[in-house]
Every structure is written in C-alpha cells, then in structure tokens.
Amino acid sequence: MERIRIGIIGTGGFANWHAERYTAIAGVNLEACMDLDAARADAFAAKHGFARAVDSVEEVLAACDAVSITTPEASHADLVLRALAAGRHVLCEKPLTVTLDEARTVAAAARRTGVVHMTNFSKRNAAAVVKAIELAESGALGDIRYAHASYFQSWVATPCWGHWTEPQWLWRLAKPASGEGGALTDIGSHMLDLLSALTGPLSSLRCSLASMPKMLDGAPVTEFKGRHLDANDTAIIEVRFTNPAGAPGVGVVQLTRWATAVENQERLEVFGTRGALRLDLAANPLVLHVSLGEDAQASRWTTLELPETPDTCRRFIDAIRAHHPAACDLVRGAVVQSYLDACERAAHSGTWESPAEI
Q1: What's the pLDDT at 2?
Q2: pLDDT tens digit sequence for 95-111
Q3: Residues 220-227: what's their mean pLDDT?
Q4: Which of 85, 108, 242, 259 is most solvent-facing, going by the fewest CB within 10 Å?
Q5: Which domains, and CATH codes, for the chain?
Q6: What is the mean pLDDT of residues 213-232?
C-alpha cells in the first residue's frame, strides 16, 4: 500500500473534520500542519497526532505528498497555486476562491498539472446524493423540468451551535474584501453544486440577497468587535438550465441562517418527465425517496435505504493511489465559483445573469 504524507494548512474548526477522516485511512501519515496562529497549530498537531507543526506553507509542502487547505476562502487561490506549483496533490475547502478571476487562474493551473486535485463539496459524498446523480445521469428521471434546493440554518437566530459572536461564526457575518461572501458562498456553493450535478450546467441565474439585523442583548447591532455585520445571511436564487435533449428547465435555491428552530436542514427535490426524487441530508444522508416510471404517474413513492459511501478525504486518497483524476476537482470548484459570481452580479443588476466560461 502506498503511504501518503498529509499536510493541513489552516487549523481552524473544519480542519478537524479533515484530520479525523485521514486518521481513519490506513497508510496515511499526518505529517505536518501550520496556521498563522502558531499556538493553535501546536494544539491541533498534538490533538490529532501530527508529526509536527511548522511555521510556513513552504515547510508543509516540503514535508508532504498531499495537502488539505482549510483556511478562510480569501487565501485559497494563493495556497492552491503554491501547492500545485510544488507538485503536491491538493484538496481545497469550498468555496474554491473569492473571485471569478482567481477561479479561472486556479482552473488553468489545475488543468496543466498531473496531480490529483479536489474541491471539498462534501455533500456530494452522501449516499442519497450519489444515487440521485446516478438516476439523473441514467435518464430515469427523464428531462428535468424543475429542481428545488434549500439549505436552512438557525445559528444566527438561536445559539444552537454557540452564539454568533463567537470567533468561529463572527467572521462569516462580515463581507470579505472582494465579493459578497455570507450564506451565498458558504452554503450556497454546496447547493448550487448539488442542484447542477443533477440538472446539468446552469445557463443563467437571478438572485436576491438580504442581511437581517443581528440581535445582541435584545437590540439590533450592525458592528461587533470591529467587524461590519454586512454579509448576506439569506439568499433566493432562481436558475435556468437545458436538458441534454434541449428541453428547458428551471429551479430555485433557498438559503438562510435565520431558520429559527431548524438548526440545520439540507433538502433537494428534482422533478422530471419520467420521475422524481427528494432527499433530506440533515435528516438521513442514507435515504433517498424516489417515484419512477408508472409510480410517478400514480404519485407512489419508494424509500431507498442505501449503504454508506466514502467521504471526500477517502476519495482523495483513493484517487492518489489509483493515479486517477478525482471527481469534484478544482475545475468543478471554479465552475461553481462562476455560478456564485453570476449570483452576485444578478443581485446588483436585478436581472438574469449568465455564468462565465471557465
């Protein structure tokens, strides 16, 4: 078995997800990690059993065969390009970049390299999603006419995951230096990826964004600890797409962090000329509800209970060992970035916008 030395750049909250999954894979060595906060990197290394915490990106790249990049998205493009230039396999958190130009640059570099590269659209790995994509690609749904995706959270409205003023949440409520950020990029990237994985490429998008007042001690606030709380926390996206045979389809993506009492809800429904499906990842990622063929004509639904499927980190390692390109690669991440860019333009123009070519 090929042993693979893993490095993690950025040791904040979601880096733990990566480290835990790499630990479960035989033949993977947790070699090096780094963070701008050296004390946090040291604690992370001790917690997960890394060989060492280091002080620079260059040290991580020199020590490892492959890296996970789990920093905030503003640094993704630079770090991915440095890793690719060093010939390292790369798994980057979503969203891939902040801007469309960055996404294009990363995609071009990824196309030139011979390494394995991935964007962590982790929802794609759920068994229900894997089966749903299989059904859509097989033609079992027919021409898809309508698709609806929603991702609802309540951590701004209620302290279900801690208070929004805590560091792991606070940064998400401020716009980045470029782009809109917020719920659109954080959770919208997941749902735009999922929906378009079933419908095929999106041809145009229209978007409305909103930022609701944040409440602190019963009063609304617009700034906290030097951060302007101006990032969107709610978005409604309309999409258009074209089926392989040329038939038109439409869809809606709904996103909010203000879904009081929900905590976390991730739903997807797809309706075609031959059948339909629906899933709720937060409720059970191993369950898919389908209505196909004659059942669809009679509104009869069947519940499929599915076996677990590999997570992103395992797929990443498997692709490296097989010397085979990975699904959800960096180019796919750039395509989703083009959808986010179209949403941002549409939110400002108030009209339909087409995604740029990648």
Answers
A1: 87
A2: 999 999 999 999 999 99
A3: 92
A4: 85
A5: 4-123+313-326 (3.40.50.720), 127-308 (3.30.360.10)
A6: 93
> 122-169: per-residue pLDDT in tens?
999 999 999 999 999 999 999 999 999 999 999 999 999 999 999 889
pTM to 2 decimal places: 0.95
- Could you tell me the two tokens for 199? 């419908």
| DSSP collapsed to 3 states, the chain | CCCEEEEEECCCCCHHHHHHHHHCCCCEEEEEEECCCHHHHHHHHHHHCCCEECCCHHHHHHHCCEEEECCCHHHHHHHHHHHHHCCCEEEEECCCCCCHHHHHHHHHHHHHCCCCEEEECHHHHCHHHHHHHHHHHHCCCCCEEEEEEEEEECCCCCCECECCCCHHHHHHHCCCCCCCCHHHHHCHHHHHHHHHHHHCCEEEEEEEEECCCEEECCEEECEECCEECCCCCEEEEEEEEECCCCCEEEEEEEEECCCCCCCEEEEEEEEECCEEEEEECCCCCCEEEEEECHHHHCCCCEEEECCCCCCHHHHHHHHHHHCCCCCCCHHHHHHHHHHHHHHHHHHHHCCCECCCCC
